[in-house]
Design a protein that fits this description.
This protein is an alpha+beta fold and 216 residues long. It is built from five helices and eleven strands, in the order ββαβαβααβββαββββ.
């Protein structure tokens, strides 16, 4: 089932869309006003304990969409399951088609604390996020882009009434439009790393960005 979410007072333009099929990601290109698309996937039985044991780490590489995942795998602090590498490669190929970019920037992080705990928007056109382990990225159904994010209080208890953070599930694939998406003025998706709530909250987070100005 595909679920759309609308901003208050904007019944004709959906802010986000989520569904169980890959096709939902193509909505970002077809619908200019859309800020977030989520491909809701079931978690896969991939053993990530060995990679989590290497946290914290952050590995980022750039390269052609067809080969950059191999370079990322080689740069990791330890061996990664083949199924994980295969999934990241598939997502890189999908992102390349969606963005029209042949060169991508991939980042895989093993986190033991919140990476970006404050709500913000990205200074990119389009970003893919997938949390393979641990709590997922949190986002708000709120317009206004960067200025609106900067005005938000740090304490969730002080957020405006009715404004509740949504959380992506593990293995969900999210496409977030940023401040550089053409024609989307102050419309970037407002999001943050999940707030730590104590206990074991290690995360493995995968990110893909296009390399701006390097399209063929």
């Amino acid at each position: 089932m595909v679920v759309e979410q609308f901003l208050p007072g904007c019944p004709d333009a959906a802010f986000s869309i989520a569904g169980p099929d890959l096709d939902v990601l193509w909505s970002t290109a077809r619908r200019p006003a859309l800020s977030l698309a989520v491909w809701c996937r079931r978690p896969r039985p991939v053993e990530l304990a060995a990679l989590l044991d290497q946290a914290p780490f952050c590995v980022a590489v750039e390269g052609h969409a067809t080969t950059v995942t191999t370079r990322l795998a080689a740069a990791l602090p330890g061996p990664a399951p083949g199924a994980l590498i295969e999934d990241m490669h598939g997502l890189a190929m999908v992102f390349g088609l969606l963005s029209g970019s042949t060169r991508l920037r991939l980042r895989l992080e093993g986190l033991i604390e919140a990476g970006c705990p404050r709500f913000h928007t990205d200074q990119v056109a389009l970003r893919l996020l997938c949390t393979y382990a641990g709590p997922g990225t949190e986002w708000l159904a709120l317009g206004g882009g960067g200025p609106a994010a900067a005005a938000l209080p740090q304490d969730d208890a002080e957020l405006p009434a009715g404004l509740v953070p949504h959380t992506l599930a593990p293995w969900d694939v999210a496409l977030l439009k940023g401040e550089r998406w053409p024609g989307l003025t102050q419309g970037g998706c407002i999001h943050r790393s999940p707030r730590q709530r104590g206990g074991d909250e290690q995360r493995i987070v995968f990110c893909i960005d296009e390399i701006m100005g390097d399209q063929e």
